[in-house]
Amino acid sequence: MGGETIGFIGGGRVAKIILGGLKRAGRMPRQVVVSDTDIDVLRRQKREFPEIVTAENDNGEAARQDIVFLAVHPHVIGNVLGEIRPYLKPDSLLISLAPRLTMAGISEMAGGFQRIVRMVPNAPSIINEGYNPVAFYEGISKRERGELIDMFRVLGECVEVSEEKLEACAILFAMGPTYLWFQLCELHDIGRSFGLTDRELADGLSKMVVGAVKTMFESGMPPKEVMDLVAVKPLKEHEESIRDIYRMNLEAMYRKLKES
User: Fold this and answer.
1) What confidence tens digit (pLDDT) does each residue in 104-140 have?
2) Residue 95: its H or E element
3) Phi, psi at residue 26, to the nearest 5°?
4) Which stretch of DSSP H or E encloses residue 131?
5) How far apart are CA 224 and CA 70, in angstroms?
């Protein structure tokens, strides 16, 4: 991210992901301020990112920066916005990383401040391989939108979507790695028990996953035809149960986010 200064209100997982991606790419801003109520959280971030400034119980300092990430849970955002509104600069950008709360609602809680962006953060951004959809409040110009998307692309892919799609993006893309990681860990452990080395497993599993995704979405074949390319399917009798688990849990989460 160019010469802008950035602030994080909330120093937890999402701050670590974004800072990790920036540092890995050699694109840390000239100043980063991270505020949190938990001194242990700030100490951990300071150990990992010595160049940042930490502020315990001082959201105002983080809110004075050019780009301000609102990285707290939705239920405390109202109180936080009331606290930081006097510190936001007129030309700052306030980027909410929380699902559920609309930009109109955030603006109202922030006393009418309208330079608001919502982004769905994706964990692979920590290695610059993220997929981070964004939506912009109406007052932000086309030029500014393009500049911000270009800055976010250091973290991976960044695309503009309409605000009403962000909750779906959160469930499928932000939470998506959690649907896969534990399965990959299990395949890794099973493969090790079969005598494969960690290096062989890391190489083989990563290429298998990338190849499987590309075959599904880039081969031009219908999904049913793709899934018929492999004759032996050890989990076939469990597939419908797994689909039911996905539908039940993800649809319930979507309703919760959209109805709150």
Assistant:
1) 999 999 999 999 999 999 999 999 999 999 999 998 9
2) strand 93-96
3) 70, 35
4) strand 130-131
5) 42
Q: For 227-260, how does the pLDDT look when each residue is reduced to its tens digit (9 = 90+)?
A: 999 999 999 999 999 999 999 999 999 999 988 6
C-beta of residue 14 within 8 angstroms of C-beta of residue 121: yes
173-to-132, 193, 209 alpha-carbon distances in Å: 8, 31, 16
Q: Is 93 helix (H, G, I), strand (E, B) or coil?
A: strand
Distance CA(87)–CA(104), nearest Å, equals 20
Angle at 31 between CA 25 and CA 33, to 5 degrees: 105
Instruction: At 194, list the tokens.
Output: 């079969």
Domain boundaries, the chain: 6-162, 176-259
- The DSSP bridge partners found for residue 186 are none
The model's pTM is: 0.93
Contacts of 101 (CB under 8 A, 6+ apart): 74, 77
DSSP 3-state of 116: strand
Identify the H or E element spanning 69.
strand 67-70
List the structure tokens of 51. 């160049």
Give the pair of three-digit tokens for residue 186: 């299990």
C-alpha span between 103 and 121 (Å, rounded): 16
**DSSP bridge pairs for 117:** 95, 136
Third-level CATH fold of 6-162 = Rossmann fold (3.40.50)
- Token pair belonging to 112: 């009418």
Low-confidence stretches of the chain (pLDDT < 70) are 1-3, 260
**Pair 102, 40: CB distance under 8 Å:** no
213 with 180: CB under 8 angstroms? no
